[in-house]
Amino acid sequence: MLPRVGPWHFVGRADELRRIVASATSGERHGLILSGTAGIGKTRLLREAVSVLPPERYAVWTATASIAVAGLPFGGLAQVLPGDQPAGMSPAGLLRWAVDALHRQAAGRQIVLAIDDAHLLDPSSAALVYLVARDAHATVLGTLRTGEQVPLPVRALWTDDLVDHDELAPLSAGDTRALLVEMLGGPVDTTSADRLWRLSAGNPLLLRELVIAASTSDELTRPYGVWRWTGEFDLAPRLTDLIDARIGDLSDDVRAVIELVAFGEPIGLSLLIEASGEEPVEIAEERGLIRVAASDRRHHVRLAHPLYGEVVRQRCPVTRAMRLKARLATLVEGAGIRRRDDLLRVAEWRLDSGTATDPVPLLEAGAQAFSRYNMHLGARLARAALDIGGGFDAADLLAAVLMFMDRSEEALPVLDSVRDEIDSDQRRSRWLVVRGLVSYWGLGRESAVDDIARDAATVSDPGFRARVHSFEAIMRMHRLETAEACRLSQSIVDSPGAPASARALAQCVLAHADAVRGQLAASARLTDQVQADAPLWRAEMPYLQLALELARGTRLAIAGDLAGIDAVVADEFADLADAGDFRLGSGYLSVVRAQSARLRGRSAEALRGSLQACAVLAGSRVFAGLAHAERAYAAALLGDADEAKAAMADSDQTQRPGMAVLYPWREQARAWVFACGGDVEQAIRALVTLVERLRQDGFAAHEVLVLHDLVRLGCATLAIEWPSGASQAQTVADRLAELACAVDGPVAALMARHAAAAGDGAELLTVADAFAELGLLLFAAEAAAMAVVRLRAATGAERSEASARLGDLLACCDALRTPALRAARPALTEREHQIARLAAAGVASKQIADQLFLSTRTIENHLQRVYGKLGVTNRSELAHALRALPET
After folding, report:
1. Which long-range contacts (C-beta less than 8 Å, at least 24 apart) are formed by 757-763?
2. CA 850, 851, 853: angle at the middle one, nearest 5?
3. Which of 38, 146, 373, 753 is deepest in the core (most CB within 10 A)?
């Protein structure tokens, strides 16, 4: 299905829009002129701004100047001025007549003159605009195209301090994402949106053309309703015409400059001058085709717009492109490979130009690309190195990269091809680790755990054997052999000869185990240590970052540490994973973002985030089941039973036994799917079963969350009959109180307090406030809803306070649909709903009666019934209470 790409509703530019409106309405200034490049959105912004001005107060006239009428007196304002222009008047008289005509038409209202493309105004129109700006009862708003010659009267508007003049900046990344959603009619994954933002440089016109080009070449897909772009597109004629108009005709020497920069950006200024000569470089800069930026003591050159490079590269003949890349490689090698990116760039140029003959630099560059999570480049360089004699090292690197590109079937033959080259413990340990990685996570073979445990004995060196055992440990952790996983990991951490990578992976296992057991402080110390040691292990084992993020993300989600989650998803790894198409990394972080949004009560945002995770992880054997479970949970909170059920089915289908450690999140989601579908009893049974399993596994922190789910379903006093051999039966509240002493952090204690307060309305409101202080608005709203139910028989003031508190909390959340919130929402008839909404909006009873064709007495009787049902006493309290009601 092709996307729709316009027309679209206006999005973004909120600050700019407010500023233009303020310029027209504040009376402090006489206007605002905005400059900007073609397609940046000046015209639309101006149109949106004047459309909100009330016509009873402002006489708004809009005009668009044009080159077609630039030679006619008042041609630019022909749409504004009366058609009966008097004959025989002097130029000064005509100007006075024009001003008087505008005032007559304004009929006492404030004049707002909005001129688009004011740089094209004819001299008479430009002079009139200047005179209008000097009028105390008039405002001038306008747009100019950057770089164009501006008529002197228009320039005098800001040089004489009559109006403000600013440059309209490109769209931000956030506004670009919002515009893409509007263009495409659905959510866009973060990586695709960021790529399109960078390539369009925040220009809405170019963004539209990019979307059209990508959609017509089938490079836009929509898995799970989320648009994804491959990064490829064919240059459509409209797009190339736009770029050609900006680039213009080029001489051969200037074109050579542009081509070198297109293939080499950022390129050092001195290298560019050495290759092309000083004069062509100066001409290219003067024409605005390249940008020179200082970085430390060097100067680097880029093209003025990212799309210039796309056009130049796609149009450049293959043989010339190869020659240019070989030239760039020689230039950088001659100057010395000093910057971190130089190794990667030279290797890629050598590969593209057919001049790569040594596998060593290709291998070094491939390892660097992998360490920066640039998966496609890493695979390409590793395969090229293997093809020209890179041997074992190239095969080892290529197999690892292929696994993380969801191409594990290709990885095993690569590994098998170099089995005969295993001639040391170091190589054997590497081969066993990568083979285990591919077999267990890539191909889903649980037997890989026993294989790697057996084969570790063939490695005699203790340090290299520790590396193999570290992978055995994390495999065992993932399939719930927690005790053995921790034993192995602790032995590695205690071994002085264990390499940094093995020790870090073992610490990740221990950190994960500590998190699910409730030892959150110890878990945090371990992950902090692994992160601090990253320079010691990243080059050798960059994918260890994924184990770190799983341990850290599990702890933060369990702890309800929203600030911590925000810090993780804003970290460098998140950007690298998205940019490099490291799907396991970016997909898992999307799940963590969704969990954070869910806890904040932003269930629609959680659903979007989990859908993005599902799209990114399509085909993955690792986190896909978790992503679909989070999608099911978010849909359940929104009350979408069909979507929740479908998502849970997808989770069951994509979940792999090798990731059994994720079962608490999945089974929690399943219970809420039952609740959303109306089967609360089944949800309770599922949660009780899960509590028993978690206690058996020793996952105390997860158990706290599930017990709290039972509290949210009204089961704080439910007795849990533990399996034989365990302690006697406990209520949910009793067990939570017991665990609150064993699980770190404030959330466990607060959840226990929530359970203890289940019958006390005032205490429930206090609990709601405590949850809100932590940002956990979902739990806060539900606690307040329980307070509303408990206080229905209380005095009017207490009921009103609870209802108002719930309304305030729900105003910060999405349209949540949980049993606790439904119980707090009294059933109003459709008529009562209608009357209540009007009354809360301040409409008098007599006006409501006239509008609904009822008597005033009937309206008052209805309102009294509404007050009783909502627990309020007057209209001022009614608006708060209505926030807790479902939309109609």
Report:
1. 757/783, 758/711, 758/714, 758/716, 758/717, 758/733, 758/786, 759/790, 760/790, 761/786, 761/787, 761/788, 761/790, 761/791, 761/794, 761/798, 761/802, 762/787, 762/791, 762/798
2. 60
3. 373
Helix%, strand%, coil% for the chain, nearest 5: 65, 5, 25
pLDDT digits (tens, 9 = 90+) for 629-684: 999 999 999 989 999 999 999 999 999 999 999 999 999 999 999 999 999 999 99
Question: Residues near 39 by Cβ (< 8 Å), separated by ≥ 6?
Answer: 203, 204, 205, 206, 242
Residue at 768: amino acid letter? A
Cα angle 297-298-303, degrees, rounded to a multiple of 5: 145
Q: How far apart are CA 492 and CA 489, in angstroms?
A: 5
Q: φ, ψ for residue 292 (rounded to 5)?
A: -110, 120
> What residue ranges define each of the domains in the chain, with the CATH number in brackets?
14-167 (3.40.50.300), 560-676 (1.25.40), 770-882 (1.10.10.10)
**pLDDT tens-place string over residues 199-220:** 888 888 888 888 888 887 778 8
Task: Take residue 342 and report the two structure tokens written for it.
Answer: 């130089």
557-579 per-residue burial string, b: 16 or more CB within 10 A, e: under 16: bbbbbbebbeebbebebbbbbbb
CB 342 within 8 A of CB 549: no
DSSP assignments along 333-347, one per residue: HHH---SHHHHHHHH
Q: What confidence category does residue 570 fall into, taking pLDDT thresholds of 50, 70 and 90?
A: confident
Edge-to-edge strand ranges of the sheet holding 267-268: 267-268, 298-303, 290-295
Asked if residue 240 has pLDDT above 90, the reply is no
Compute CA distances 348 → 136, 275, 311, 365, 366, whole Å. 63, 19, 20, 8, 9
DSSP 580: T
What is the reported pTM?
A: 0.82
